[in-house]
Amino acid sequence: MSARRPYVRSMDGWWRRNPFFIVYMIREGTAVLVIAYAVVLLFGVVRLAQGEAAYDGWLTALQSPWSLVFHLILLASFVYHTWSWFSIMPKTMPMILIGGKKLQPAVITGVGLAVSAIACAALFVLVMKLAS
Amino acid sequence: MKRSNAPIFWTLFGAGGILSALIGPALVFITGIAAPSGLLMPRETMSYPHMLAFAQHWAGKGFVFIVISLFLWHGVHRIFHSLHDLGIPTGTGAKLACYGAALLGTIVAAVALGSIALQF
């Protein structure tokens, strides 16, 4: 056996040394909160299938102040996810040429955010109508 | 050459990413803040009879299934590809854990929603 001990650079906090990578890690970190929200809904669906008493337990948990604070954090994370998703979209989608000119990144981001705002408002109004 | 399965996971990631970007904020606000607190929306919005009727309708059932499963597939794909950045080895085990979790959640959602009878 060789006694070689090659130098391996520590990865501790590498992303905290550069603002670009901090933004990158926050963006990737939204995935954890997207999963957390899916799990909240998953529990709700399972409880719904189990009957009224089980579902009401889930609903009561949702009404607790802790849950409201948690959902405010989720909301902030989802809004950031929406913003970052459309911010990097110009880099992740194929280039669009209009009249021989490249569609500007700001246009793609702007249209995405506008569509998102309309979709959110439409969903809110639809739920209001269904509930009343 | 064996075909890569990456496009499947990538497609699920992208579909979940765009769906959560489009309606995620509104969904969180409605189900987590507005309806439970009774601010802006009646508390009965998410009452048992309302949600049962929603899950009994094919469209409601499909919507809930798509939201839960795609959000899960989106999240695990992103986490799987970030493991390397955190210095965690990304072998078969990590892949199974990530995508397996999403698959498990998808199956649980399908079973739960499937056990709620369809009503027309």
- At the first level of CATH, what is the class of chain A? Mainly Alpha
Rounded average pLDDT of chain B: 93
| CATH architecture level-2 label of chain A | Up-down Bundle
Counting DSSP E segments of at least 2 residues, the number of strands of chain B comes to: 0
Largest interface: A-B, 52 and 55 residues
β content of chain A, as a range? under 5%
Q: How many H/I helices of chain B?
A: 4
Shape of chain A: flat
Portion in helices of chain B: over 70%
Radius of gyration of chain A: 22 Å
Query: What is the oligomeric state here?
Result: heterodimer
CATH topology of chain A: 3 helical TM bundles of succinate and fumarate reductases
Helix count of chain A? 4
The strands making up the biggest β-sheet of chain A line up spatially as 1-2
- Structural class from helices and strands of chain A? mainly alpha
Q: What class would the helix/strand composition of chain B place it in?
A: mainly alpha
The CATH architecture assignment of chain B turns out to be Up-down Bundle
> What number is the mean pLDDT of chain A?
92
- The succession of helices and strands of chain B, N to C, reads HHHH
CA(first)-CA(last) distance of chain B:
48 Å
The domain count of chain B comes to 1
